[in-house]
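Run Carnitine transport ATP-binding protein OpuCA through structure prediction, thanks.
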Amino acid sequence: MLKLQNISKRYNEKVVLENINLEIELGEIVSLLGPSGSGKTTLLNIILGLTKMDQGSILFNGHDVSYVAMKNRGFNIVFQDYALFPHLNAYDNIVYGLKNKKNLVSEQEIREYIEFLELKPHLKKKIGELSGGQKQRVALARTLVMKPKLLLLDEPLSALDGVIKESIKERIQLIAREFKLTTIIVTHDPEEALTLSDKILIIQNGGISQFGTPQQIIQQPSNEFVKEFILKQLHIKRQNIYQLFGEQYA
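Sure, done. The structure for Carnitine transport ATP-binding protein OpuCA is below.
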């Protein structure tokens, strides 16, 4: 379990996050959802250890990791731009982080991750030869071989569209289920959050507007902001919402 207690962050006099309290269970997919500037990326970076919080604590499986260095937390992130090395082929990108951790995974496990993400035909390709969906899968494989305790994804679908986006959504869900890997996703897109996540944290102006399942948020929005932010988007993207929640929400 990941537990955040009273997390707050300011930049100069601006409050970015204030008294964030949250519990995420093992294997859950949780989306941090909100408009630009709401504080969701800052919260992701605090969990990762990339950004220092001003107050609060972070507990993971009962251990306080609030002041543990990022490299020692065992949390791994796939950045929005994938951060792949263009001069290396796909396979060398996948195993790059294992150079100093040779005993972390076996060759068999690496092959299993590659098969799981359907990357075998693309291993010798340079990054510039890959599609957006293939790059995303390489980035996911590179993260999985590091055996993360927690998977963080920053706008994982923003550069994708159509069938490719749906495929990556399915892969993320399969990863969480198959490896019982707690996954936290930053997104600005309500449709993505609703169709991908077990639970959604909606952030407004640095505070929590609502935390609940997609059904709870659709059926019982906690305030006018949630209702406006979510429901306006749902009318734009009707089909996926209809399939999940029924005609009255489409």
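DSSP finds ten helices and ten strands in the chain.
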